[in-house]
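pasting cytochrome-c oxidase for the record, 148 residues
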Amino acid sequence: MKTENKLFAIVAVTMFIFAGGYGYWTYLNDNPAYGHPGQVEWVGTIALIFSGLLTGMVWLVFWVISRRIDPRPEDRPDGEISDVAGEVGFFSPGSYWPLGLALAAVLTGLGLVFWLPWLITAGIVAVLFAVGGLTYEYYTGTRKLGPQ
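structre below
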C-alpha cells in the first residue's frame, strides 16, 4: 500500500498547488470576459481545493492501512512477480446485476435532473433492490456457493 500511499499524496499536494496557482492567476487576470481584476474565480478554486481534500482522504486511508499490514511484494524492492502469483479473488462471470444497478442509477439520475420526486423514489428503490441482488446473488437460488 506504500505505492498507492505515495501516489495519492503526490496528487493531493498537486491539487492544492493548482488551487493556489489558479486562485492567484484569476486574481491577477484583467480580461473583462472573465471578471474584474482583483477578484478570485471561486468556483474553480473551491473545486480544486475539494479535489485535493478528497484525494487527501484516500491518501489517509492508504497511509493508515499501509502502517497496519506487512509490506506487499509490490512495495518491497526485492519483490518478484512470482510472489503475487495465485488466486486474486472471485469475479462473477455471468451476473446481470451490475447492468440492473447501472440502469437504476440512471433512473435515479434522470429523476434528479428533471426533479421528479416520484422518479427519484422509484430509482432509489431500484438501486437498493439491485444492490441487494448483487450482494446476495451467490447466497440463494441455483448459484448458491458452498455445501448444498
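The chain has two domains: 2-84, 97-143.
DSSP finds four helices and no strands in the chain.
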